[in-house]
Design a protein that fits this description.
By secondary structure, the chain is an alpha/beta fold. It folds into 2 domains: 127 residues, Alpha-Beta Complex (Quinone Oxidoreductase, Chain A, domain 1); 146 residues, 3-Layer(aba) Sandwich (Rossmann fold), CATH 3.40.50.720. It is built from 9 helices and 15 strands. Strands 3, 4, 5, 6, 7, 14 and 15 form a 7-stranded mixed β-sheet that branches. Strand 14, helix 9 and strand 15 form a beta-alpha-beta unit. Helix 2 crosses helix 3 and helix 2 packs across helix 8. The longest helix is centred in the middle third of the chain and has 21 residues.
């Protein structure tokens, strides 16, 4: 089978298309003929071995696939690795049957990024109706869904950030009340101004560095900043306990891995998200579909912030 493999850690240049033997499922696993592969920002970290979990070589990256099982079921599944290939294996409890009304791309937008957006708001931030919510990278896969879900869950004001005017316009079309420039300089003031002069209640933050620092400074008393990524690859300033106490604010970390195996955080919200998409009430933002052989270009575009929505690889190309 064709697959994308790395034999050394690094940037997009280490991704190589190769021929490998088909994976062999273990007891309790499914072999999936892959029709579409999800690309996540976390994949870029895994390829350079800078993610929360360590990578080992050689490796076929990729943690999410859509396709058919040997008995013909159409599924979307989480894989530990091995997703960037024509065939992949997944544990049976990590595969979800897909309604006919949900496309492969839409399903792939939900299995990591949709579940992340749902849990950021419901589980980690515990957003209450009427609260203001800042969604950084609001035109991205997770951000575009978080904007829609925050409105659906009753946010009083959704403030989006994005790096270009086109992306900010898109965030407004998705339901954000206001969209501002994403750059860290002056961000605290822009967020407060966007919230009608008041500090904000919830921030969903995946950039790190100055954006994290400015977002924390913009939090109201009892506000929550949920950190779920570090796309800038810049570490935020250290946080002293006294700083949190003196402002009654909280910083919460989130990693989707801790939701897996917990039905109330994984299976149940996934069923809810699929039903919303099938009914046309939630619209995953779909980005470019790259040939499998151009996985490196997908990583380059993702790291350069040239993309919007969910990126996929097409194993037939």
């Amino acid at each position: 089978m064709r697959a994308v493999q790395i034999t050394e850690f690094g940037g997009p240049e280490v991704l190589r298309t190769v021929e490998l033997d088909d994976p062999v499922p273990q007891p309790g696993q499914l072999l999936i003929d892959v029709s579409a592969i999800g690309v996540n920002y976390a994949d870029t970290h895994a390829v350079e071995d800078s993610y929360l979990s360590r990578s080992s070589l050689p490796m076929v990256p990729g943690g999410e696939v859509a396709g058919r099982t040997a008995d013909g079921r159409r599924v979307v599944a989480l894989t530990a690795t091995g997703g960037y290939a024509e065939r992949a294996v997944a544990w049976a409890n990590m595969a979800v049957d897909l309604p006919d009304a949900v496309s492969d791309g839409a399903a792939l937008a939900l299995v990591v990024q949709g579940l992340t957006a749902w849990n950021l708001l419901r589980t980690s931030a515990r957003m209450a109706p009427g609260e203001s919510v800042v969604v950084h990278a609001a035109a991205g896969g997770t951000g575009s869904l978080a904007v829609q879900l925050a409105k659906r869950f009753g946010a009083g004001r959704v403030i989006a950030t994005a790096s270009t005017e086109e992306k900010r316009k898109l965030a407004l079309e998705l339901g954000a009340d206001v969209a501002v420039e994403a750059d860290g300089e002056g961000l605290k003031e822009r967020l407060i101004e966007a919230n009608n002069g008041a500090k904000v209640d919830v921030v969903l933050e995946m950039t790190g560095g100055p954006v994290f620092d400015a977002s924390l400074a913009a939090l109201a008393p009892f506000g929550r900043l949920v950190a779920y990524g570090m796309a800038s690859r810049v570490t935020p300033s250290p946080i002293a306990a006294a700083s949190l106490m003196s402002h009654s604010r909280a910083v919460v970390g989130f990693w989707l891995m801790h939701c897996l195996g917990r039905p109330e955080l994984h299976a149940e919200p996934m069923a809810e998200l699929l039903a919303l998409v099938a009914a046309g009430e939630l619209k995953p933002l779909l980005g470019e579909a790259y040939p499998l052989s151009e996985a490196a270009r997908a990583h380059e575009d993702l790291r350069a912030r040239r993309t919007s929505g969910k990126l996929v690889l097409d194993p037939s190309r």
